[in-house]
Every structure is written in C-alpha cells, then in structure tokens.
Amino acid sequence: MLAPKVEQLFGNREQAEYYTIVTLGSHSALQILKGAKDEGFRTLAVANRQTERLYRSYGFVDEVLAIERYEDFPRHMQSLEHRKAVIVPHGSFVAYLSLEDHKKMTIPYFGNKAVLDWEASRELQRQWLSAAGLNLPRQFKTGAEIDRPVIVKLYGANGGKGYMFVRDAHDFEERAGLLARRNYIIQEYIIGVPLYIHYFYSPLTGRLEIMSMDRRYETNVDSLGRIPAAAQEGLDLEPSYVVVGNQSLSLRESMLAEAYRMGEDVVRVSKDICGPKGLFGAFCIETIITPDTQFYVMEISARIVAGTNLFINGSPYSYLNYDEPMSTGRRIARELKNALLSNSLRLVLDDSGVL
Ligand code: AMP
Ligand code: AMP
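Output (structure tokens, whole complex):
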C-alpha cells in the first residue's frame, strides 16, 4: 500500500543530490545535516529567529527556513511539499510537536510513525519492553505501596525535568499536595550508573549495530557527591535530573553481548506490535546498571538521541563497523542512500499523511 505513494513522489533510482534532508534546528540537527551532506544529499535546517544565524554559518547546511516558533513547523510544511524532501526526526520533534502533528506530516518521514503510539504511552512502552525480556524498575500504583526509594515522574516531563526523588511512603505522603490532580508514575529508584545505548537497525539488511553510548550529565544529581553527605544535612537539598550534556563511555566488554541482545529483542517485538516494519533506524535504550551488572531499562527513545552528538566524527563502536567516521546522523543518510540505490525507499520512510 505504501509503495505507490513513495514511488509516485520520488520516482525511481534518483541520485541522492536531488533529495533534501530536512530537520528542525536543535538537538542533533548539526550531526544529521553534516551526515546527510557527507552522503551527498542537499540539506535544509528549519530554524527560528534565534538559531537562524547559527545554522547559516555552517557550510554543509544548504538552506535555512526561518520560522517564528518550532511549534509552527506543520504550517510551513507546504513550502516543502513540492520537492523531494525527507524529514529526519529527533528529540525536539517530540518536544515541540504533538503526536497528531507527527501523523499529519505532509512530507515523507524517516522512521515508522506507528511506533510513536507505543513509545508515547508509558503503559504500552512497558508492555513492549517487558515482552522483549528487559529488566524494568518496579512500578507502584499508590503511595501506600511504596516500600523503597522511588522516583516520581510527571507525565509530559522531559529532559529529566519534573522528576522527584522520594525516600519512602511517608515522604510521598508529605508531598502529596504537589502531585494533586497531576498524572505521574511512581518507579523504583535504581542506584547505579546511567548508560544510554545508541543503536541503529537497518530494515534493508536486517542488521543491528551498536553505534555509540553515553552517560547523561544531570544537574544537580551528578553534583551532589561534591558536597559530603554530612555537610548536606539540613540543607534541604532535592536531587533534580535536568540534563545539561553528555559524557562518553565505553562499556565493559563482557556486558556488550547483553546490550546487543536487548536491542535485538526490542526490534523483534516491535515487529509484532507496531506493524511489520516495526522499529527501525536509530533508537536508544536508556539503562541504569546496578552493582551486580544488571541493566535496568528506564525508557526507549525511538529516534536519534542527543548523546550521539559526542560522536559526530564516529565512535569506537562505529569504527568497528566502518573504516570511516560514521555518526548516527550519517548512518541515517547512508540508509536513505542505500534505499534509493536499491529502489526500496518505502522500507525506510513513513508517508502516512503525505497523500
Ligand atoms: P531542545 O530542542 O534543546 O529543547 O531539546 C529537545 C529535547 O531533547 C529536550 O527536552 C531534551 O529532552 C532532549 N535533549 C536535548 N539535548 C539533550 C542532550 N544533550 N542530552 C539528552 N537529551 C537532550
Ligand atoms: P529519562 O527521562 O528516563 O531519560 O530519565 C532522566 C534521568 O532521571 C535519568 O538519566 C536518571 O538519572 C533519572 N532516572 C530516571 N528513572 C530512574 C530510575 N528508575 N531510577 C533512578 N534514576 C532514574
């Protein structure tokens, strides 16, 4: 069903240079557009008044479309409809556009939008990850059930903003006022090392690659250790989890097989639940590793994550698969190019909403 639409739009066997890779100017746009240029595509950044000059300053950005606010992007899509444009989504798409906006996009989109429903709902996401045999933090339905430290996550929170560390049921009760009439989940607090694993799954070859990994640097939780616990007493300090950047990390090699297995099983299960195409392209499994070297999975992100920005020039892991610098952004463009060359664009694009 999808095939004719994509072929109608693009024709067959076109050269990469006739196609424009489009993304929003934020998050991992520089990486995506640099990668697209390296693979021979034209590139376009959608910027706002604050970011427009930045994106124009890079030689690999062919065009900048400046709009007032990123939230307005759907209204500007028309101007790109007549050309061979492909949207590569990243975290800012989720932050600024709604699920409906995604589904109604009138330009072909790299990825499978059916995955978005499973990702957006914490319940569905949990079902997906459990079915893939991943270890998940316990969840508590009510404050009374809490029997260990927990993290309370407000719905719609992102970038770790709006998370609250709660010691026990009593602590929860004391803060119940803050949570009244809000939607949230209560999750077991896992003490360990946060590791975010960046994968790429190719629907063209059926192969999964580990591209790179990062650990988040979060304020203020990552700084609390700088003040001795004794000195913290009475300071009324609350940990917060607001991400400010990312650090590189290589994983103990004996744990790499499990990291790979988790990625494979998440992709396998996605094909049962999100239609035959399942999850493909870039994705990230967000874990915390406990002292018994168990991975606990907090979340899955079904697209390129910003931690990959550490590796615009490739990572130690991507170097194992490629003899050239291969960022996740470039890997996406490589997949689009390979799809073009093999007449299989429909395998890597979602064009629901296009025609
Ligand atoms: P922004 O366009 O910077 O507001 O980013 C959109 C969303 O992407 C934010 O709300 C964060 O959740 C996420 N994000 C942005 N930068 C990073 C980063 N360096 N590491 C992790 N997540 C990030
Ligand atoms: P997320 O929004 O899932 O990417 O989480 C943001 C940050 O909150 C993570 O990097 C962790 O530092 C922290 N976090 C989230 N869930 C948990 C958990 N279950 N246990 C401990 N820390 C967590």
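The CA atoms of residues 43 and 298 lie 34 Å apart.
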